[in-house]
Amino acid sequence: MYDENNIFAKILKKEIPCNKIYEDEHSLFFNDINPQAKIHVLGIPKTQCVDYSDFISLSDPKIIVAFFQSVNLVIERLNIASKGYRIITNSGKDGGQEVPHFHIHILAGEKIGSLR
Ligand code: 5GP
User: Fold this and answer.
1) What confidence tier does 54 reach under pLDDT thresholds 50, 70, 90?
2) How far is the C-alpha of 104 from the C-alpha of 108, rounded, in Å?
3) Which residues contact ligand 1 via a Cβ below 6 A?
4) Is 101 a catalytic residue?
5) Which helix (H) or strand (E) holds 62?
6) Could you tell me if 62 and 18 are in contact, meaning their C-beta atoms sit under 8 angstroms apart?
7) Which of 47, 57, 102, 109 has a Cα at 20 to 30 A from 91?
8) Domain 7-108 has CATH 3.30.428.10
9) Where are the domains of the chain?
């Protein structure tokens, strides 16, 4: 069940501010408030979806493609493709998800440590 008052829903409704990197019809990208790397950008679709599985099962394939194309556009704009980056999405309790609106983390700008 989607919580319409989660933090990212409030950011989408402009009830709380964010440091925006990129926005289009289907997606919004902004800096993480507590960065875990020199570059730490969050990307969210504007669809109400809890996590990756929810996004994929709820969305028209065109929206899914549009979202991941926007991810790539942001990677190009950040100029991180040549040195590299990490994309992460957390889901649920075991995945360590804090905010229940599907989002991807783009981490870059320095060597990102091992996952464990
Ligand atoms: P999760 O653990 O759900 O994958 O990641 C949630 C992320 O959202 C965390 O990295 C956290 O720092 C970030 N975050 C939480 N609240 C806010 C906020 O109000 N603004 C921004 N820009 N990021 C937030």
Assistant:
1) very high
2) 13
3) 7, 18, 30-34, 42, 90, 96-99
4) no
5) helix 61-78
6) no
7) 109
8) yes
9) 7-108
